[in-house]
Amino acid sequence: MADIPAPIGLPPHAQGLKHHFDDSAQQLESSTLGMWVFLLTEVMFFGGMFGGYTVYRNLYPEAFASTSHFMNVTIGGFNTGVLICSSFTMVLAVRAAQLGQKKALISFLVSTLALGCVFLALKYVEYHEKWVDHHIPGPGFQYADPRYFHQAQILFFLYFAMTGMHALHMIVGAGLLITLIAMAARNRFSAEWFTPVEMIGLYWHFVDIVWIFLFPLLYLIGHTS
Amino acid sequence: MSTTLSPPPRIEPRPNYLNVDYGWRSWLFTTDHKRIALLYLFSITAFFFVGGIFAVMMRINLLQPEGVFGHDTYNKLFTMHGIIMVFFFLVPSIPATLGNFLIPPMIGARDLAFPRINLLSWYIYIVGGVVALTAVVRGGVDTGWTFYAPFSTTYSNTHVLLAAIGIFVAGFSSILTGLNFIVTVHKMRAPGMTWSRLPLFVWGHYATSLIQVLGTPVIAITLVLLGLERILHAGIFDPNDGGDPVLFQHLFWFYSHPAVYIMILPGMAVMSEIVACFSRKAIFGYGFVAFSSVAIAVLGFLVWGHHLFVAGQSMYASMVFSFLSFVVAVPSAIKVFNWTATMYKGSVSFETPMLYAFGFIGLFTIGGLTGLFLATMAIDVHVTDTYFVIAHFHYVMVGGMVMAYMGGLHFWFPKITGRLYPENWGRLAAMIVFVGFNLTFFPQFILGYQGMPRRYASYPPEFQTLHVMSTAGASVLAVGYIIPLIYMTWAWKYGPISPQNPWNAKGLEWEKSPTPPPTFNFDTQPIVTEPAYNYSGTGEEVEIG
Amino acid sequence: MDAFRIFPDSASTTAGEVDALYMYLLAVGILMTVLIFFFVAFFAIKYRRKSPDEPPPKPIHGSIPLEIAWSVIPFLAMLVMFAWGTKLYFQNYTPPRKDTLDIYVVGKQWMWKVQYPTGQREINEMHVPTGRAIKLTLASEDVIHSFYIPAFRLKHDVVPGSYQTYWFEATKPGRYHIFCAEYCGTNHSAMTGWVTVMDPVSYENWLAASSATGSMQDQGEKLFAQYGCVTCHLGDSQGRSPSLRNVFGHPVELDDGRTVIADEEYVRESILNPSAKVVKGYQRNIMPVFEGQINEDGLLQLIVYIKSLSIPAPSKSLLTQVTPPARQNVRKP
Amino acid sequence: MTHQAVPVKVYAAVFLALIALTISTVAISKLELGEFNFVVAMTIAVIKASLVVWFFMDVRRSSSMTKLFVGAGLFWLAILLVFVLSDYLSRGWLPGPKWW
User: Fold this and answer.
1) How confident is the model at residue B382 (pLDDT cuts 50, 70, 90)?
2) N or C: which end of chain D has fewer CB within 10 A?
3) What's the rounded Cα separation, in Å, for the pair B111 and B184?
4) Which of C273, C278, C322, C332 should one mutate to test binding to chain A, selecting the residue with the greatest count of A CBs within 10 A?
């Protein structure tokens, strides 16, 4: 956009401040509110799938119990731990950015990224395991217990839809982390302006919360009933 | 024609958002909310006329009981008419054009909170539109804009996936617009612009944005599940494989009913401005009108079950949804009564925007009341899926929202273009639209109660008379829409230069911001001291907080 | 039916009451519309702007009592609509329990197949006597259709994979339209038919005259034998399969501990996918899968036959309005 | 946030709590609680989620506007789940033969 000098007397141009904001506090609050409204849309986006999940879990409790035997609880549990650690390092990264410690910021961002990749790798292992067992819904779907063939296919469809959409959000998050690391390396952030780090921190915590609900719903419940 | 065609005087126009920069780069990479509003205006008008052509072809087909184009073509016509009108015209039109253009100047801001996201939302809208149009060009979709499973997932062999992707993408444009408005209204109001001084236009769009942000993601995920089901046939919506098609209807209508409030609330927002300005009086019951917008937004999410009364929903759930559908009718009624009361002891003038406002009040009342028929379970069993429903939602959408959109375009035409449109042509077009609309859709109420089902390419001969009357009305309506297209494009270049406040209306966008506005809307940051709609100049506060 | 009638024929007991409710809503609607048109026109003309520079009018910011009045009064009128409409809806969609004439309607892409207990089968035609409660059991073989008879003011979506029911009592003899009201594909608009209402005497003659290859029950028995069910389920099955005598309508104990009422959906699912619900004490995978071999009409005939094998217990089963496939009134163990 | 930075101790405590809750929810899922199993797993998940929201996402020190939007999100999610389930759960109920 042609950089039109704002006719209105603006405070000396703070780092990263856009023309149409009065001061950086207003800009920061706007970004935070905008991020939370975006997370609202994500809650409703996953909410649609949780709606489908609750309906089918209510319709076919027995079929659900039998499919959850094929869910690898150890990988799931470990993955939950991995994501909680990544949330922890992310929050430390935001704190480091707030204090202006560039080296700490980059190291925490890198460790968050690494944990994210570990999660995705384990997720790949699980998907491969399902691929080998022919549990991928679609023409090639097979299921041991003929009683629940159709219902199992629906529940595996929901499993792949929810965890797949979650993994997609993880991949997008990893991409964002990489850009953050690049920006931090070129010290674009300072103690006064580190909004992108904060926003992507909120996004990352949201993705972690989705997994916090996915893990018990898909892996744990139904073991016993 | 009263205005003589004198050439406009050659004074050097002061720099404004239109002449500050030229070339396609200044349009396609602009982050100025006003230019983005114009980009939206041109693309939405194009989609409106494409959808309109499909509508006229449908009406031609229905001239004869056995149909003109054949069943398959007609099925594709009504599907594409529905998809283009709902997702590419009704949902984005007022928020993306008038809302985008006017909310910043109305609250005294220099721009929306996230200008680049605003441009991104236009690009996403265009990408979604192009994908949907390729579905049209490559052979169309024949599932109806409601995509009911299991027909859409297993039995239809048309481009359902392509259309679903187009709508999925366009949904994000709606989300981003809503997000932008919410943050702008919260964070970027001028000093002194408290919530009780906000123009009702901004209240209406704030409520609309809440629905856009909270509803649209659910249809996004529903279309993803529909697409996956169409590829994998896993059976989530397919009864032969254990799925339940009624679940699709639940997820679909969870968004699609609030979507009709996304369409009507901006229309009501424009109405409040027009009625106040042309009665020269503050809106009667400002607090009630503002709160009823938000009430409609919230209650709008609780009523979607009235689309499933005959679809196999349990009786108890139907009863709950029926009751809530009556509750949501109350705020709309309050608004209509308040506009009428605003004219009491006012000084009413009859320019074009006000004619559209009269049309809106009349037709939206009929549309709203026929909604009560559909909320009453026993009558809904008889009239749902018939032409009664078609008449109802066209009365609310075309009679309500499009009337308000035309009124708003005329009301803010001087502010947007700096020119005046020809007043008598405007009045003529408004009357033609009113007559043509009633002639088109009132017979459909009678058709509906006689039992003529919707989406029929051929029908029993005894319904023909009413269908012919409806088709005649449709051609009058089409003429009524083409006239403004002509004189507005003419006036944009050759219309007389408009003073800063031609209607001497209240509101920051008229009083404080020049016409047409500069890139940052104001020369000096406005400070708000008086309440909204302070036409009488007494300036006593209206406390709603 | 000439074109300028506001109402279609009313040929069923409930049609009159639905029209009365419609008239009530129409009255409220017209009253409100006239009121608003009158006030808008009156204010617009009485307070029109006489000269461009007349002084701005005194502000009236609103009056709480008026706002409350025009919120509560319309809402009370709406409550009447709600209560009356709900009562009528429950009446229409709850078939009476005893002495109803059961007719089975199967929607298939672009035709209606009608079956009578006495065996007659028709396509896009239905014959009903007056003065008797007729219960329709609706099924679909492919997509969602909607069985709609405007003259009876009744319509119900026909969701594949489950049974829908509603009832009516015809009053006026004549021929009335049947429509499909839920979009179902290319010839959705051709999926129409006629229902002929006759007085009981001519109905009996029609029944006798129309050729029927045995009642549904007989045809069901024939299918029962043809598919080999009789060898296991009625003869001495040496413990390989449960006898179907006196089973329909009674609770059945399953091998995973659940107890299910043997209603239409249970029988239908056990035929199509036997291993979905196996009775306690019997092995799985003995009974062959019949999915895709028997169509909906055959299933209905088998169900009518199996129903005839059991003494009708006070079965609540048929009243279950819609249960998505494979979900019964499951009582937790 | 314009507030000063939160001491690491607080974050570490919250982190350990989350890990502990994860281990406990896996352990409890092994027990035979029947219907109660779902309720316990969900309460633990809600506790973990609110810990993350309250501390990690710093809603604790955010403006009341942010808290309002978080609440609104949960409320709308509840609308979707409750009303869809209300249809499925009440499908079996029907009025008696002659309700009035």
Assistant:
1) very high
2) C
3) 8
4) C273
Residues of D in contact with B186 (CB under 8 A): 65
The CATH number of the domain covering residues in C7-48+62-212:
2.60.40.420
State how far residue D38 is from chain C, nearest Cα, in angstroms: 16
Three-state DSSP class for residue C162: coil
Domain match, D14 and D35 both = yes
Contact assignment for D45 to A36 by CB distance below 8 Å: no
Cβ <8 Å between A151 and C284: no
Of residues B545 and B3, the one with the higher pLDDT is B3
A-C contacts (CB, under 8 Å): 18
Going edge to edge, which strands form the sheet with C125-129? C125-129, C193-198, C174-180, C145-149, C154-158
The pTM (predicted TM-score) of the whole model is 0.91
Q: Place D95 in a pLDDT band, splitting at 50, 70 and 90.
A: low
- For the domain spanning B30-511, the CATH number is 1.20.210.10
**Amino acid at position C77, single letter:** A
Kindly indicate the confidence band of residue B42, based on its pLDDT and cuts at 50, 70 and 90: very high
Tell me whether A25 touches chain B (CB under 8 Å).
Answer: no
Query: Looking at the 3D structure of chain D, how many domains does it have?
Result: 2
Q: Do B305 and D94 touch (CB under 8 A)?
A: no
* Max Cα-Cα span within chain B: 73
A190-207 per-position pLDDT tens digit: 888 889 999 999 999 999
Residue D74: other Cβ atoms inside 10 A = 15
Are residues D12 and D30 located together in one domain of the fold? yes
The domain ranges of chain C are: 7-48+62-212, 216-319
Please give the Cα distance from C291 to A224 (Å, whole number). 31
Residues in chain C closer than 8 A to D36 (CB atoms): none
Q: What is the CATH class of C216-319?
A: mainly alpha
Which residue, B125, B289, B101, B95, is CA-closest to B208? B95
Looking at chain C from residue 90 to 119, which residues have their Cβ under 8 Å from any Cβ of chain D? 90, 94, 96-97
% of chain C residues with pLDDT over 70:
89
Task: Please give the Cα distance from D71 to B60 (Å, whole number).
Answer: 51
**ipTM of model:** 0.88
B227 in reach of chain A (CB within 8 A): no
Contact A147 C326 (CB under 8 A): no
Q: Say if residue D56 is in the same domain as residue D7.
A: yes
Pick from C87, C96, C321: which is nearest to D94 by CB?
Answer: C321
Beta strand C133-140 with C125-129 is: unpaired
D55 and D73 in a common domain = no
Which candidate from D91, D92, D95 shows the least CB-CB separation from C90? D95
Both D17 and D55 in a single domain? yes
